[in-house]
């Protein structure tokens, strides 16, 4: 599929990849695709923001290009670099051949041949594609400002090379765990969607969809226990990925029910902090299994 005709059709295509999108999310993704606007997805970790980009790429039959943001990331890391070793080798080759015209040699250094495309440039040159700008809230203000031109115009300017413009805008999906507020200027350029953790029926459906053959009762028990854990004040409430890991761990051990012993044996699949393990232990595993 390359051009879904409705949010429902897109939701069905995402479902075929194993990603269950609610009505609001499928509408937002459809509009991002149809209006060629970036989609800004915000929500708690583990709510399926990054997975959405992967699923969209698979559903639309497009490559996915990922830019993982982090503190200190700059435009060069996201956009391009020059292949200095190859440029040097090129100069030496020209020199050895006795064909070293300084001006021509300098011009030949800054061509596509020696340009190393980083994710943003790769997305502009390889579009159509899905461009995942993951955890943009981890980047600095300066990097956000740099992204504005890219998202606005699907164009970048490289001083030594010239302007690069995408023939077809990539479908950009930006994610944020809301570790800090992203500037309004960036949000204004995007369609916005907030992702919550799935409710119980949705989580059961996700488990059954993503783990073929899982017993329905086990899926329901795991989903209910994860929902109970999220209601506790944990340092790291489990996301959908941890829910899937827990169910897979139980299946790998041949357990067909989530009882206290099975939960104790596999709790490390779903909780990743000692403080959280201690808190659950103090409260008692039965308290999350009984809900």
Helix/strand class: alpha/beta
Mean pLDDT, all residues: 91
What gap, in angstroms, lies between the N and C termini? 41 Å
- Overall geometry comes to elongated
Kindly give the count of domains.
3
Name of the CATH class of the largest domain: Alpha Beta
Bin the helical content: 40-55%
**DSSP strand content:** 5-15%
As a whole number of angstroms, the C-alpha radius of gyration is 24 Å
- Widest sheet: strand ordering: 2-5-8-1-9
CATH topology of the largest domain: the name is Rossmann fold
- Low-confidence stretches are none
Largest sheet: 5 strands, parallel
Helix and strand string, N-terminal first? HHEHEHEHHEHEHEEEHEHHHHHH
Task: Note the total helix count.
Answer: 15
What's the count of strands?
9
- What is the CATH superfamily classification of the largest domain? P-loop containing nucleotide triphosphate hydrolases
CATH architecture grouping of the largest domain: 3-Layer(aba) Sandwich
